[in-house]
Each structure stands twice: as C-alpha cells, then as structure tokens.
Automatic annotation (TrEMBL):
Name under which the protein is recorded: Related to 3-phytase A
Source organism: Pseudozyma antarctica
InterPro entries given in the database record: Acid_Pase_AS, His_Pase_clade-2, His_PPase_superfam
Gene3D superfamilies: Phosphoglycerate mutase-like (3.40.50.1240)
Matching Pfam families: His_Phos_2 (PF00328)
GO MF assignments: acid phosphatase activity
Amino acid sequence: MPAIGYSLPAVHGTSLTAPPLPGASLLPPDVFHHLGQYSPWFPADADLPRYEVPQGCSVVFVSQLERHGSRYPTGGAFKDLSRTLRQVAKHLQRVPDAGPNHRHGQGLDSDLKWLRHWVDPKKKSDGGLRNRIGDSELVPFGQYEAYSSGRRFYERYADLFESEHVDINLDYAQHSNGKQEDIRFKSLLQAACPTQLNPSPPASYSSTLQLHHHVRQKICHYLGFAPSAAESRREKRPFVRASGGDRVVATSRFWLQGFKHSPHKPFQHAPPESAPWPPKGRPAVIGELKSGKPHRRIHNLPEPDVIIPEVRKIDDPAQPGSNNTLDVHTCSAFEHQHRDNAQSPASLKKDAFAKTATAEIRRRLARQLGKDHRGDRLHLKPQQVLQLFSLCAFDTVARLDPYGLLYDQPERNEGAVGPFCSLFKPDEFVSIYEVTTNMEKDYGFATHQPFHRALATPWLRELVARLERRAPVMSPPTSINTTLDEDPKTFPLPSETGPRAFVDFTHDNQLAPVIASLGLWGEEQSWKTSLTTPFSGRMTVEQLVCNATDYVRVLVNDAPANVSQGKWCPGAGYAPVAEGDQLCPLPSFLESLQWVDRADEWNKCDSEDLQHPIQEKSPL
C-alpha cells in the first residue's frame, strides 16, 4: 500500500481551497497516522501531486463511499473505558505521589499526576459533565471533517453540476427575508422565464422569435432564476444516501453543507448531546451517561436524498434485520460466527498478539502507577492497554477546535493532543496498536475474512449497475433494499439531465469489505486500517472518458490504485494517457466484478461451517 503522508494536496479546477485539516505540527504523524480506525482523516499518500484529471480526459460519473467523521466512543467501548478508568481511580486513591522519600516505583510517577484529575470521582460545580467524553456522537471536529470532504468533492467535480452556486435544499439556501416585494419579484421571474434554461445559444437562429427566446434565457440565467428545488435539485448536487445511524446521517448533512459552501451559511457545529462542548481547557472526566440519546437535531442543514434504516437483529431479536447496502447485517453466517464473537479468528489473533506485545507496557504502567498502602500494584489487562491507546484518539478529536483550523487560529488548538497519548512511545503506536487494528479489520471484515465479498456484494451490485446505466440485479437476493432500488426516485441512474455523482455514507465495517473486495492491492501488500478506514475514510470510483474511450480510476483516501497491482484491472499493461497506471479500461474493471451479480458469494451467508478459503499469512 502507498506510503503515509500528511499534507493535503491542492484541489483541481478552482482558485478556492478546501477547509484545512490538521497538519503534522498539530497531530504528529508518528502517532495519529497509526491509530487504525480511530485515526483522524489524512490523505493516504501526500507525496502524490495534486489531484488532476489526466489531459484529454473528463470525469463523467463518480460514486463515493464514505465513513462518518470522528466521533466519541460507541456505547460498548464507552462502558469499557469507564470501568478501566474507575479501576485506575480506585487504585490512585490509595497511592501517594512519588516524592524524594519514596523509592522509585513506590508512588505515582510525576509524569502521570494529570491522571488524578482525569479519574477524580468527585463531582465538579457543573455536575462533572464539562469535558466528559461523550457517547457515539460526532465530535465537532468530526462534523468539520465531513464539511471539508463535501467542499473538496465540489471543487474536484464541479463540472458535473449545473452551476457554481448550487441549490441544496430550498430551506437551507433561501436567504430572503420574506418581504412581499421579494415574493412578487420571484413571481414575475417565474412567469417570464422558461422552465428549462439553456444558456448556450443554438447554432443558428431561424427567426427573430428564436433570438428573442435565447436573449430571454440569458437574462433569466443572469438573474439567477432556476426551476423549483424539487425540479432541479438532482441536477445540481450529488445523489446522497446515508445509513440510518445518527452519526452517519449527521455526517451526510455536514458533507452537503460543505458541498454547498454558501458564504451565507459558514460551518457551524452542532453541540453534542452527550457531552457539552467546547472543553474550555478543564480536565476531562469519563463518567456514567445515559445511553440511547438521539443526536441533537441539526437545524438549517441539507438532508440526504435517502436514509436507509438500520435494523439489526442483534439489537432487536424479534426483528429479522433490514436490507441495507450501507450497513449489511443480514448475512446470517457472518453475524453468528464472526461479528462481535470473542472466538472469531479476528478476536483470537488480536488477543494473542496483544497479550505478548503489551507485556512491557503493562509492566511499565504498573510501576508508574505506584503501590497502594498494602503494597499492591495495578496490573492492567492487554485489552485495557488497547483501550488507553484508543483514548489517545477519542480524547484528542474531542478536544480539537475546528474553528481554529477554519480561521487559521492555531492558538485555539494548543494542547489539543490528549494526555493519554503520552502513556506510550511513538514506536508503540506503530508496532503494537496499529498492528492490532490491522488484524481486527483484516480478519474481521476485509481481505482475510471469508465473508468479505458477501458483505460487499450489495453495494458493488449497485456500483456496477450505475456504471452500466441499468437497474441493479435483484435476484439472487442480497441485502439490497428492493423497494428503494426499484424506484428511480430513490435509486436514480446516471444521466445527462439527472445526477452524475453519487455519495453514500456508511460505517468502517462496511467500507472495509467493499475496498477489500475490489482487489486493489497485491497479496504481498498487507491491510492498513489507518490508510483505508480512518474516521471520514472514503473510496471514490471515477468513470472518465479519454479520447472517446471509457476508463475507471479508484482512489482510496485520495491515493489512486495502480492497474498493475491487485486484481481490479485484468489485462492491464497499456497506458493510453500520461496517468495510464491509474486508469483501467471500463470493460476490464467490469470484468473483475462479474462475480457480484452471481449468487456464489452471498450464498455463503447460509453456511454454518465455512472454512477460511484463503491461506493465512501474517499481516505484519
């Protein structure tokens, strides 16, 4: 896989630039590029030149699958972290600070005194809520990641949309104060202007009436009149779907706000429900919070075109689960054998590795945390050490102030890196934590997961259908929601008068199998979670026309796949344009995906004794 980089490449085709994301001086790459699925977004290869469309080519279709932005820990992880920190708090209540009269390792190490404030069980004047790590929601920085992604998408693919200033939703773009004269003026425009505007003149004018009609069109176009939002929305923005989780829907809405980039509606975060923000510099405290709170309603933001419900059998045993290509939970064998299964290959491999790899860290922390009055030390378990690694990420993204980035005010993010990051050495993030996240995703959802193609089949069927400008194959059945996909209003195909860009929002555990199933990298290249499914991670499939020939380019977090690697472009080896190593002829790309319309992979979901079909090798 490509080398890790950190600076953001410039965008193509516009003098505008996307809202900046953290640089290396704020989030050191030796830590924050190795936090697996909890890494804040960064381009997978910053050594590449800026994004460009190859000379002689034009993008005619885009499909992007994107994970939600940075968030607080999910409910289960939140409870696990709470238990670990309460255990630390109980121990520290009986441990003095290290001093000149204490032998080394007897008292709390001076470098860890900050930990007392983090785990102090006493309530503050505000009830202990301020600076607390929240539950499952997008943090404000995660909202900003989505906003930045939408802005970059528009700047990159502006040619696919009708105008520079697009109407997203009428209630979002409308800035009129509702005065009667505004209403009358709009009414006159609507009466005078044709419904379909064509700012380009005909080749010739056969009559004075045609010339008059064209001049009238030009005036209406200049005055900014457009058909109603319901008539024109799909021509002016990507068609956007979101899986029904609150953080996923919220990501899609902030993404659309960034795509709109209205000067009248700059980025503004939605306050999290489960943890007040901003932190105001006070020490953070994890405590008990009520679970199940809905995401705070986000006002004045665009809505996705389709929200596909998330109904999971594990959440409600009485429900069979719902068909959702953006959150597949209907592959029965995978659900029973692998997902959240402590005896699955992914769990066993990760646990076995962590037990050995964290041994020195556990001894070091036991020494630094000192002895209590009975002479006992606190011995953390391997899984608890991994939790503290993850808290480096969760605490930091919760502290990040997006306005400091947006308005170039670095002082607002001084001290944003959470103190838990200092518990570990930089090389331990690389050699221990990143390896565990690679195992977790590789054997749990990606290349070495025997069901990864089954999990990817529904979304890839939809991709192939759109590339071939036809309805997706519905039978044999998969997790495609046939009610939605049979309706052109909820599953439109690319067209000149309709959408030519499609963006879907999902979770990392759905993005991973889709990326893996494309076969973008050779077997010698191991899975890297931080480069594939970080927060706000994305895969982009472009269809380009170059000298009247159709090609496909696939980018994973802005890094283009190479046609000479992997299995995604069979028969590759010719370069019709300068960037030929990135471009796969459309028929070859479709050939590599012939399996998605067959039943073979999805039928594995009915198997209870499927053995691993791939010869296992170390992912290290």
